[in-house]
Sequence to fold (428 residues):
Amino acid sequence: MTITFVGHGYVGLVTACVFADLGNMVYVVGHTPEKLKRLSSGDPLIFEPGLAELLKKNLAAKRIVFTNSYSETVPKSDVVFIAVGTPPKENGEADLSTVLSVATEIGKNLGDRYTVVSCKSTVPVGTNRMIAHKIEAVMKKGTEFDIASCPEFLREGSALTDTFEPDRVVIGSEAQKATDTLLRLHKPLPGARVLVSIESAEIIKYAANSILATKISYANLISFICEKAGGNVDEVMEGIGLDKRIGRIFLDPGVGYGGSCFPKDVKALISTGSALGVDMSLLTAVEKINDQAKENIVEKIIMNTSGKKIGIWGLAFKPNTDDIRFAPSTYIIKKLLKEAYEICAYDPEASINSKKIFGAKITFTEDPYAATKDADALVILTEWNEFKQINLARVKKSMKTPLIFDGRNIYNPQEMELLGFSYFSVGR
Ligand code: UGA
Fold:
């Protein structure tokens, strides 16, 4: 099949590479010449394990082409996916301006062949129908198209596996021809097929992200109780997670969820529900607990550190990505700078992005041990694998005071005590 993606962010680029790899001809439309040039030379612009290799392989096979032209791509496409950003507005609503202007461009360029237009960007219920109206307003008479909602569930850091091996493919459409086209496109992929209405598909995406965020906030809430009452949150989560109705996954407490999805999507669902007159206090509580999780580690540091020199390990909002959008690290570092802490940070991938925010206000190192040199405390904010088996004796020697605040519970408290550290983790 021939497919066009408009947008080359995480969702657009990863899905485009996967469909190209499955043998389709894929066009990716962008608008910044510099970025298109880099993408065409095999630079994915983002760090995602395996993505550069997959991109290069499919560029070499001439199955993926980057362009700024709608007129050379949309008319030959069986499916056009919109995969542009929907950043949150001040009031939490998703900003749809780019999605809708892209829809107009697609409408102007639809050709003689039947085309399915589908929004991969996370958009509030009702948006796909708005896209259809935008297209109808500008398309040539007689153009044959349908809209369908086909949300994406990939995670940063494991985006390729998630896309090649989805648990389910959700298709929201009221046109059998559109459903059949998307079923054909997804045929090589495993996972259940969930065929629903457009509205249900749109809501599924927000409902999925919001329940995952709710699980995380629930784990954080229980961690607050464990800290005060003397329990161990890992044991509690193990104990409840073995119940198949609950499951252990996404019950890791920490310094709160971040990233470009959960914070934005929970806010957007609150905004949608509130506008419809639904009491959204369950999700406002989820947000409040998430803020509290970030605040707690700051309080622990202030209460228990005597000096002002702090090393930080981990800036990315999660491991295996260089993404720092809504990363807990940014919030926590801002708070610590306000308290006049001197910070030296290490992250294997995300330092460049964090430097864009903090500049010279903090020091960045290329080596985890260097971040701990003469430090009064070490703070761990992302659970990168390389921290799990690091030489802790060397870390201890390098620090001024052997004090660790572990926001991701990567070490065993008893072992840390034996090694001579004062060790604060979450809910244990
Ligand atoms: C999330 C969803 O998991 C994907 O299914 C979805 O497609 C994506 O949003 C999206 O809407 O595009 P992502 O934000 O990439 O994916 O990463 P997650 O693995 O979900 O982690 C999000 C945040 O939750 C991270 O800050 C992570 O540290 C935190 N988290 C996750 C916890 O604090 N505890 C957990 O148990 C799990």
